[in-house]
Amino acid sequence: MLFFRPAVRAQFTVGAWLRTRSELRDGQAAPLPKGASPAFFTSQRTRLSAGFSGYRFKLGATIQDVRVWGQDASTINRTTTQDNNGLLVHEAWAEIMLLDTMVKNKSLNLKAGRQEIVYDDSRLLGNLEWLQQGRRHDALLIKYESGPYTLHAGAAFNQNRENAAGTVYNPTPPGNYPANTNGGAMYKSLEYLYAARKLGKGHLSFLFLSDQFSKFHPDSTGVKIWDKGVYTRMTTGLYYNNTVDKLTLTAAGYYQFGKNASAQKLSAGLLSAAFQYQLSSTFSAGLGADYTTGGIGGDGTSHTFDPLYGTPHKFWGYMDYFYVAGSSGNRGLQDYYLKTRYKPGMKFQLTADLHQFYSASDLPENTGRKFGTEADLVANYTLTKVIGFEAGYSHFWNTASLTSAGVKNVMNAQSNSNWAYVMISLKTATLFKN
């Protein structure tokens, strides 16, 4: 009797990534009060990654350390606390190919463990790459692909420890960084379905995501006591991106309903549309608009859209005034923007963006809906495939509406804010085969 066994070809990959970023913050995330001094610091991300793949499986792991230069005394071996960033496991996952590798044009894979979850333009699900800490999930994914079609299903169920009984979960994020995009509590569980079809030079996708948050009741001092049961929030919608000749079109629409982590009934939405036109071989320009609902209805329903676990730094201005860790109220947002890109060669790129921000709902102070204007300028230079340099400058002209109590709540605020940074990145990978 003859047995056939396909040749086993294993691959081992190791890589390192060191990224330092020096920042001057003179009103980044929120305007500073008049007389306040700007901040300056250097943060560093260090990642060591390893991957191993063989017949019908892959393994991946990334160890990450994030810290600010000088936060550790040079003679002290600091033990990382929850209030600092420090050393952690960023990724640790295994992927199993459920279909034999000889089945062509189809794949059915099971991926389990700590992993980045990124879809479409990272608006709702992204790895938050700009933040030195990044974002990851402890999750289980089933991934099916056939020709131009993709179908993914994922789930996560979080616990604080190995409990002896019960599944009550404390969602309070440790340290200074929020669990989700909009600064809220960590989800207790999450499920999603993602379906996409490739187009000529883009794709059309559908997302349905449900995330659950621990129920609670306040004690006599107002501190939350976590209970059994969950509040369930659901988000669904479509994303479209395609390039035809020199024109790239992008559009998205999402609806959010159910209950949020604060037990409020929810009915909210996001609409986005943009185009970018290649005016020459080196220069492109485009216009776009984003609209996220906000405010509270007369019946107590929240209309505040939360962009889930995405990468807001890409969309609503590089100074991160909206939908990041810093509070921006629950008023919703209108963002009308112009984006330009100049790329004369493979090594250098310059982008310049201009945003005009408005509230999506009336403010209690009756100060008008205009939040302000932001200008962003970013230059990238690639010295080699491993070494890259990036520098940026942003300026924000704010209004009384932005600094009012219902939004940023900054008394005696400066009318102009600045932010600048310089970033050095060395990212390398070496491939071993046997």
Automatic annotation (TrEMBL):
Domain Alginate export, residue spans: 13-402
InterPro entries according to UniProt: Alginate_export_dom (IPR025388)
Protein name as catalogued: Alginate export family protein
Species whose genome carries this gene: Chitinophaga agri
Organism ancestry: Bacteria, Pseudomonadati, Bacteroidota, Chitinophagia, Chitinophagales
